[in-house]
Amino acid sequence: MQSWIIISAIAVAAVAAVPYALPSSKTIERVATIKAPVDKVFSLIASSEGYQSFNPYKAKDPDLKITMHGPLSGIGSGFAFDGKDGKGSQTIVAMEKNRSVTMQINLGAMGRPVTTFLLEPSSGATIVTWSTKSDFGMNPIGRVFGLFLDGMLGPDYETGLRKLGQASQAV
Fold first, then answer.
1. Reduced to 3 states, what is the DSSP secondary structure of residue 89?
2. Among 49, 83, 108, 149, who pairs with 64 as Cys (CB 3.0-4.6 Å)?
3. Half-sphere exposure of residue 32, counting CA atoms within 13 Å on the CB side?
4. CA-based end-to-end distance of the chain
5. C-alpha closest to that of 98 among 47, 37, 55
6. What are the tens digits of pLDDT across the range 68-103?
7. Structure pTM?
8. Per-residue pLDDT tens for 108-147?
9. Pick from 107, 90, 93, 91: which is nearest to 142 by CA?
């Protein structure tokens, strides 16, 4: 009987330790070629209002509430969001004109992922790389959640990049 308790305790300890063997961070990335000059694409990404023209979560949640804050564009430009997929804020924290825009997302207890858009001019078009890095630290639930993150966010980024292409044509 005592050996059964020891074996059970070892099994529970092994299961509890598994999440700590998983990666402590995860990066989701999608790439698309947008048929528009880099300055047009950059102007949409570097503006919270412009971002709304390709925000993939607006189509998924018609009741999504967006509240702008900070300047209209550039560092400090951002917005708060509240919808069926959660609430938080997104703010531009760094940028290099026509090359990159980095945004800090604040999801409260869910974490603070960093999103980066890299732009590369290519024969009248722009290659856009949209990536988000989430750092889970020692949070075992976050590490397990990381296993599913690409499947959850990847399709939204693909939708957003398609919409960015459409919005870039309209600018």
1. strand
2. 83
3. 21
4. 74
5. 37
6. 999 999 999 999 999 998 899 999 999 999 999 999
7. 0.88
8. 888 899 999 999 999 989 999 999 998 888 777 787 777 7
9. 107
